[in-house]
Amino acid sequence: MTTLVVFVEQADGAARRGSLEALAAARSVADSVVAVLCGAGADKAAAALGKYGATRAVALEGGAWSPDAAAQGIAAVVKEQKAAAFFASATSTGRDVAPRVAALLDSTLFSDCIGLAKDGAAIVVTRPWLAGKLEATLKSGAPVLCATLRRNVFPVKESGGTCEVVRGAALAAGKATLAKVEARAGGKLDVAEAPVVVSGGRGLKEPQHFALLEDLAAAFGNAAVGASRAVVDAGWRPHSEQVGQTGKTVSPQLYVAVGISGAIQHLAGMKTSKVIVAINKDPEAPIFKVADYGIVGDAFEIVPALATEIRKIRAQG
Amino acid sequence: MKIIACIKRVPTTDLQPRVAADGKSLDATGVQYMTSFYDEIAVEEAIRIKEKQGGEVTVLTIGPSDASKEIREALAKGADKGVILVDNGWSGRDPLATAKALEAKIRELAPDLVLLGRVGTDRDNAAVGPMLATRLGWACVTDVIGLEIADGKGTARREADGGLEIFAFALPAVITCQKDLNEPRYAALKGIMAAKKKPVEETPCPAGASQAEVVKLALPPARKAGRIVGEGAAAVPALIAALRNEAKLL
Asked: Smallest Cα–Cα separation from B90: which of B67, B114, B63?
């Protein structure tokens, strides 16, 4: 009987999708999965987790968000449950909290895992090195196997399960506390969590031409705009949109690369996308070597035509 | 203000890696090294805080004696001292073992602020900074793109998924640095000359067992060969058909 604890992020009583993916992944390698939720709304989000694979959910109420206070609370649950493993989604918050939980458990951490398997009773993980240029399969000799899981890799699973919800000890005051949040304009999806990513590079020639990609992303509805390092360094786009070795690593269902030649550092960050489409005027561009489907030609004609077609399909439902 | 910037030497980002004959490690033949991209930002931030508020910047690394090259680069930019915890097997240490080794030296040096890159661009764990802070019992903000320190307190802007998070904390603290925090300077000739006279301490790194065991290291599975569906806007219907019928998307 293996017990695994999962940190489930929630906002206003709803669990984040990445956390539901982590619950499903946890259930695939453990018999008993304990979800831990923090902050106001934790009870409400906890109640719905049974159908996503949790067998028990622990709600930890607390004041202002603090990653160190949350880590203390989560680590206490891991110890109390005598859990063999601890998972979090590799979100911005998950990657902030998980190393602290691991350190409190005197355990190392495997970040951004893309594969999970059982080897006898042990859990074996696969994770990228050098931003995905290599894949390492690792075993843990730690007291608790601690891992964060890349988003969009492990599918969410729904069942008719239920879970027992318990209220844990309230979180203590933290050493670093959240004073203010400045949300991104328009509630845009982050490039690392969007199911569709539409990325642009130097081939777009001028920063204002990213409006074409914004429009294509809007046509898809569930897309985020990404960028190559070249255009981020040139100041055309914010670093938060950069895909690649010194930006974000993404695994969307669909990655559309527009005017991106495909430097090795960029390819490393998007090669695990399920389907890759490349639009580039240079038929020799390295991006075509990793693309499933390519169109050679002028992005300024192709992208609007693609947006129109996508809108038609979505209008048909 | 006493500041420590931690740096790590990593393979250059243009490396096309090969797996060594043991099937578990990186083939080091021909690998060139650089200071991890985000650690350069940590060094820059440390120097800027010193220039504004006074104090001393120590650059700390774990690595072979060769890492004095990366340390000298930081000294040339304006850091004051270097410390190398010498360990030829540095790249095999897991993040917890790394955090423990740094912790011992940092306790001895007793700084007000420790800066690190948000992630090492070799193993991509992004774990050492928050692990170190947890072990020290200090505040820590990760992925920071704006930092203000005054009167023993700090405010840090953190790049999160949904936007920016602003954290308040008291010193001592550990900060991990994200790309937009600053633009690292280049060393000037004068700085390069001055760096030669700055002290670099080499001391053996405390032994630390790694809890991570590599079972296998491999190149990612090759993607299935794709195809060009056509040229120009006229190819859009063919692309849509492929996405719907073959890829089962849309």
From this structure: B63
